[in-house]
Predict the 3D structure of the following.
Amino acid sequence: MRLGMIGYGTVGQGVADLLVKHREVYRARCGQTLDLAAVLVRSVGRTREVEPPEGCVVTDDPERFFGAGSSGGGSGASGRGSGGAGFDVLVEVAGGVETVRGHVERALGDGRHVVTANKSLVSAHGARLLALARDRGVELRFEAAVAGGIPVVGALMHGLMGNAFERIEGVVNGTCNFLLTTMEKTGRSYEEVLREAQRLGYAEADPTMDVSGRDSAEKISILGSLAFGDWMTGDEVETGGIEGVTVGDLRAAVARGRRLRLVARVARAEDGGVRAEVGPRELREDHPLARLDGSANAVTIIGDAVGEVTLSGAGAGRYPTASAVVSDVVAIARG
């Protein structure tokens, strides 16, 4: 099976590395080889820690990437591969919404499967993209869009489908959990710990998406849509962040035997609707989400038959996220 990938940053390089490192493992699991045939990037000439495999077309030309260009390549293609790409599965790990939305819709319309790690795209346009995939008889998978390497999307769509869901709640932003747990343990201010998180790579130079709660809102909107049936977007989630949380707030919670965490929650409301919210919330200290430390993520799912199930682990990073991406590809290849 041939793969075309949009984006070749941290996660994309992790995907490429796993495809080479575990080539025979994946072949045994799905009965065919998984070959990275093409990569669409913004800058062809950039030096990267993990180079694309030999024979892979690397281009900044979408037409060539999709296999419609000439074999000449021109200035917008590397010499690693020749001709149009031609691939069966589009892997999207570039981020953003509108530009990649067009590429994803094109791939689905052409009858190609799509795997994406893009929470913003799935939250905003998941309903339309899933409908297009169904219409074309292909799959749209997005395990990596929520909680990195934790298989929570698969749990909702497969392992727990025998349940009527009551609620889902999670700590799904590692940046915020690092900030809150570090402030709680050290007594240092939000501003000081944020600078440390940026230095360590746990927070972006502009951390607004994370600390405002927007990142968590998009993720819980996806989980809520899968659990309760009607698609909701991140804009429909009541959202608050951690910018105003102080060391005093955290220590006051500890004094009450509780912990303050940024919790994303979605549940069936009394009127039959669905309500989703994100914000700082006090949890009892023995709650699974309260016990998380550093940048870890966890999601608790409550179903009427299974009861309470908590999944936890690495919610971001090159290889945890690449693990989820490749797992979706393997599932498609298995049929």
